[in-house]
Design goal:
single chain, mainly alpha
Length: 163
């Protein structure tokens, strides 16, 4: 539980500090604030996804599977690499804000919402109340949802005629 709450709060705290410390000429404009929050939820979330993926493929993968209430299997290896791939896409969006950012948000939403559905199904159908099965559900739903809302706000704040 603590891991998911702390990582989510880390994204929020990082975005807040970044907004306050921003020294660009456009600082504290609506567009810039939305951009910073979007970057933290996509790129910062990408770093967290990479770390989670490394956990799934690393030496502690069996313990991570146990904490989720799953059996360690080759599928965990595949999920780990999917997490890493989406994380790298999110991280690269720091330098690619155009359609690449949109692709990063779409990839995050598909992966995390799919994960959330799987965790809810495990809970409802199999009574899996392992802490890392239950406590990942809010972040799996909220992080992509927030990223989508921020991406829409960011795109709508673009001056006409720019892409």
């Amino acid at each position: 539980m603590a891991f998911f709450v702390l990582t989510f709060l880390g994204l929020v705290a990082g975005a807040l500090v970044h907004v306050l410390a921003d020294r660009t000429p456009a600082r504290r404009t609506y567009r810039r604030v939305v951009e910073i929050w979007l970057l933290w939820f996509v790129a910062g979330g990408g770093v967290l996804s990479i770390l989670g993926g490394l956990g799934h493929i690393g030496p502690y993968a069996p313990q991570i599977a146990d904490s989720i209430g799953f059996a360690h299997s080759p599928f965990q290896w595949e999920v780990g690499w999917a997490d890493i791939a989406v994380g790298v896409i999110g991280l690269l969006s720091i330098w690619n804000r155009g359609s690449f950012m949109t692709a990063a948000v779409i990839a995050m939403a598909i992966l995390y919402w799919g994960d959330a559905i799987g965790h809810v199904m495990q809970w409802a159908a199999h009574g899996n109340t392992a802490p890392n099965n239950i406590w990942t559900i809010p972040t799996d739903i909220l992080q992509p949802l927030i990223a989508i809302v921020l991406l829409i706000a960011y795109r709508r704040s673009q001056p006409p005629g720019t892409s």
